[in-house]
Amino acid sequence: MLNRTADSVARATPEPLARKVRGISDKGLAWLFISPTILLLLAINIFPLFWAIYLSFTNYRANRPNEVVKNVGLANYKRILGDQDVWIAMQTTAHFVFWTILLQTLIGFTLAWLIDRKFRGHAFWTTIILVPMMLSPAVVGNFWRFLYEPQIGLFAYAISFVSGIPPTDVQMLSNVSLAPWSIIIVDTWMWTPYVMLICLAGLRSIPEYLYEAAEVDRASNWRQFWSITLPMALPFIMLAVLFRGIENFKMFDMVTLLTGGGPGSTTEVASITLKRQAFESWRTGYSSAFAIILFVAVFGLANIYVKALNKVKQR
Amino acid sequence: MSLTTAHSVVAPSANAKLIAGTIIVAYALISIVPLLWIFATSFKTPPDSIAYPPKIVFQPSLEGYCNLFTTRTRQTPEYINSLGPATGFCDETVRKRNMVIAGPSNFMPRFVNSLIIAFGSTFCAVFLGTLSAYGFSRFKVPLADDLLFFILSTRMMPPIAVAIPIYLMYRELGLSDTALGMILLYTAVNVSLAVWLLKGFIDEIPREYEEAAMIDGYTRLQAFWRTVLPQATTGIAATAIFCLIFAWNEYAFAALLTSGTAQTAPPFIPTIIGEGGQDWPAVAAGTTIFLVPILVFTILLRKQLLRGITFGAVRK
Q: Cα–Cα distance between B90 and B88 in angstroms, integer?
């Protein structure tokens, strides 16, 4: 009865008002649609973040929940910035991020450029190349440990086959100077396709007429590459570097399974140090402070980088 | 337009194509070798898997798969002879190594956990993501850009940094090592991807469709349900697969927040141990079973891949 009345009123009223009576207003609907997501993120991401900020000023230890929690002010932050191990972990991370990004960008861009020659069957081979990046990094780390095994591992065998070094001497994971490279190799194997795919999109976005005009002007291939291809693809390359940079700064799973941070602490990237402090030494307050520092670092660097990226785009 | 490109002066020469093709095929073949090797190892016997030089030609065996699904104990030959005839293929294989099957391994329950958590969180993330994406795409939301950036920024935190407070929070709420806890967490991580991707897809659907439907007497909600959703199915499916792959592959949260009943496959597979070290054929078998769905999805997704991995920033 009531419904029918409302309906007849609605039919008689002009459009915007009618919509309000028959359903929810657009504004109400917008909030109804968006708020569940925001609430979930507040509960699972933002509330814990504030909790971590609070903990970072205390000496709380998660394995002793009944102990009295003391406010220690900035002591945790001071200790982290003066901690030799933290600085070594940051250097390890920087080494890892620098070399993986450099190799992935060089190889990825070259592959994309070659695929853009559009030879027969390029779509099929592109799909094959893309497979590694879809796999679970943890599972990848674990099975590369098998490939790296001295003597019985396929990688060690292939290296000794090519170089003549006895296969028992190819100790990728236990040699202090080789271990950092072992994680770089696996990461490059896995994520080069990612950079390649983004670069390929960049190359395909370059309008053909630019090359035609250059051809008319008799610009050499070399000149065309430096004056058209590279500058036009640069925003895409920079985007790929941004995503890879953030991801590798956070790197945890693949390295944990491959080397566990060893031998010694030669491959202990920041996330592994954080995990050891938080879940093995149970220094919850201290590790929360470390987590906040890492987060601020990623966030800050990413922001500066995005500004640079936007400048390149506008050119 | 197509005429000019067909006669383009800049089309790569046949020679350039040949060289490019050769290099790409060579790279593709080399990069796929590790995967083929794992696949092959899953069909080796344990001695074959650690032979030197590595065996490329070998007698295929299902022992790795038997070992993956069972736990075994070593017994004396007399005891084994005293048992009745072997009841199945695995039983027979295991007895040849002087062992008997003690029971099923934890692989199946862990695999089922992976399925429940991945599908559960994907459903929630895509559901919430579709609603939010529609909201952001069609309505003037105050501070829309800030909210969208906030949604994305939650993805920049290192997982371990998020895990510390989540660990404490779940301990208080009794969500540690539960599927529900993992579903909530993965939903929160994936919803940022879902919102960004789906907003891109919904932006591409012309508003005129809904406006026409609303002139025909549909409410906004009905128009969303009957015109926008059917148009967005491809985008929703692609988004769902990306969320599924993330949840399926995730390791850090799973390793820190689950230990038993809710543990997923990625933290479990590396712990498969045989006698005297890692049982590589069993590990390879687990890895193979775990990776097959991902391979299928990669092939299904290949056209949408670019969009997914860049949060919709590159659309081609």
A: 6
Does A138 sit within 8 Å of B135, measured CB to CB? no
What is the residue range of B250's domain? 108-267+291-309
Q: Sorting pLDDT into bands at 50, 70 and 90, what band is A203?
A: very high
Q: What are phi and psi of A72, to 5 degrees?
A: -115, 10
Residues with Cβ within 8 Å of residue A286, at least 6 apart in sequence: A76, A79, A80, A277
pTM (2 d.p.): 0.87
Give the pLDDT band (50/70/90) at residue B276. low
Task: Give the C-alpha separation, B312 to B316, whole Å.
Answer: 10
What does A14-66 look like in DSSP terms, one character per residue?
A: -HHHHHHHHS--HHHHHHHHHHHHHHHHIIIIIHHHHHHHHHTTB---TT-TT
- Flag whether A103 is in a domain: yes
**Residue-wise pLDDT tens digits, A273-313:** 999 988 998 999 999 999 999 988 888 888 898 888 888 87
Q: Do B101 and B117 reside in the same domain of the chain?
A: no
CA distance A133 to chain B (A): 10
- A40 and A107 part of one domain: no
Which pLDDT score is estimated for A23? 59
- The alpha carbon of residue A215 is apart from the nearest alpha carbon of chain B, in Å, by 7
Give the residue numbers spanning the domain of A23: 2-55
